[in-house]
Amino acid sequence: MKNGIYKKKLDDLLVICRKNLRTVNEDLIRKAFEFSVEAHKNDIRASGDPFFNHPYEVAMVVAKEIPLDDVSVASALLHDVAEDTVFTIKDIRQEFGSTIADIVDGATKISDIFKSHEVTQAESYRKLLLSMVNDIRVILLKFADRLHNMRTLEYLPKERQLRMAKETLDIYAPFAHRFGLAKIKWELEDLAFKYLHPQEYEQIAHKLKSRRKERESYIRKFVQPVEKRLHDEGMTFEIEGRPKHFFSIYNKMVNRNKPFDEVYDLFAVRIVLDTENINDCFTVYGILSSIYIPIPERFKNYISVPKKNGYQSIHATVVGPEGKMVEVQIRTRGMHEIAEKGVAAHWKYKENLSTLDEELENWISWVREIFEHADEEAVDKQLLESFKLNLYQDEIYVFTPKGELKILPQGATPVDFAFAVHSNIGFHCLSAKVNGRIVSLDTPVRSGDQVEIITSKHQMPKADWEQFVVTHKAKSQIRKWIKEEERKAIANGRELWEKKLKKAKLHINDDDLMKYVHEFKVGDLRDFFLKIQREEINPDAVVQEIELKMKHPRQEAVVDEQNDGIFNRFISTARNLTSGITLFGTRDNFLHSFAKCCNPIPGDEIVGYVTKGEGVKVHLKLCKNLQSLMASDPSRIVDVGWPVTNGVEYASAVRISGEDRTGMLNDITHSISTYQNTNIRGVKIDAKDSLFEGTIMLGVKNTEHLDRIIEKLRKIKGVFRAERLVE
Ligand code: MN
What we know:
The protein is α+β, with helices and mostly antiparallel strands. Bound molecules: manganese (II) ion.
């Protein structure tokens, strides 16, 4: 064990940490360092170096370029432990707690995804990556990891070089930009460019080198008078020619179709002021424009109006010596740090907030905004409730076996996935493998999962699928399929039934059939045919039943006086007396029955409801059931009424009370109706403790007519009282 080397490495790392981080738990870093050394002790990198060099360098990048906190540095040291050694996330959790374990776990999962799939849809991959990240430090760690891998890419085989370079350009560099990590973004891009376009890279490198002296001397010439004036003003600052990035030169050449010289000839200078006073930036601009003529329309004030990623600076273009355009950026040291180190510097320099928590919230909300509003539009700031960063939490990204990405809503199951791939796969989806393991079809899938659907020609959608699928497509397709199946089953059931009827030489229409099948607790004929098809009803038994009933038709309205209450008895008697009801004002022998819910009696205001197979059901106009039937299907409401008798009649009410004995009602109605065919128009009877009391509305010709009836009523055995009711 080369203890000396390791000790120096640890000391170097701690020095950087102490310099760049707000607080450093040195024990934590030391422990993570030692754990990583031990875990990786037998591994060697492609370069021939001990593997530990990699996590160590990644930790260095984190501490130097993205200095956020000690937890990030420790996580960087441990980031490949779970992936490449015998130690697991569980071990890390035990040793270092769940925050670090979760960060390492997140980073490992991302590595796994990228290892097993080639990036084909960059935008989806970017979202996938974010959907897997709960802690922002995971993604910062991945930047550092990727940066070190790109710096040491030369040791890998050509094929992996290309793949990694493409991933870097498609995924990591755009992310780094959005996080405000300008320096890392440039380096990632230049390194990727070097492997993806080696010839172009070499050409630009060569030209830059050959023009360097010339360029440097021009910049010196430009800078000198500015430098002098700023010193005279007593300012502390740094002024330098801004380095040109290979990839940006290349991009400008390609996108603007311009030769190298033209792109290259745009000189750029940056002035970084060691001051906290932002007004100094404007003072410097004033000085600069007194030396060189400014181009007003190229002046940009990102200090008063910072960019979304927090970037602040003054951008100005002036006419330099020999009439050449020079771009100048003016900013404070703090602004410069934020421009180069993005989120991490933001964390370090925004110290005016009272608590750490509040700071974190602001920071996270800022990061979120970058993603949610990638465009430059201004948005209201929204504070987050939690530390956790859940970007794209409503969506999950899963892979097909061929590596294609499918975007599904949170909670989606393999069945949703199957329908998302193709309806036919959904319809015949038999079982599912998630990451190679069979799971039940209702198991929610997660971002990064690879889902494989096993289909069978014989498999059909199940009704319970509808309960657990979450996508609209799956739901509607399953419903449609079930409906269609039902339609077919009903048609088949009907066919089966009609064959049976034909065989039995029975003729029965749907309405009559409905009356018979009611006894089988079937809602309607569709249901009846469906149950026949599903063999829940035996059609032969129904045929037998019907044959039997046709031979022995039931007696109409047999009133069992022993068992029936007085009210019901009266109703049926009264209904018989009125001999039916009218439909739209005309008396017709149409099929009708009286609703049990409201029991209309002659004289009540009534309404008809056309049922399936039972003709018109007569309800009270005020019946609650009717109200809901009306609301659901008003077209089935018909106008019905009690028949109007000929001749002029006056409505008159008789109050009657007596004993509720067997035959009492018959006697009353008989007495009334046998006297000059008197019409009963309405009845209200209450019975209690074998006594009854009620009011009968009659249609009478005159008072003599009424008096006679009252006389007759009084003579009935058990009637205590009968008199005209005068209101
Ligand atoms: Mn790594």
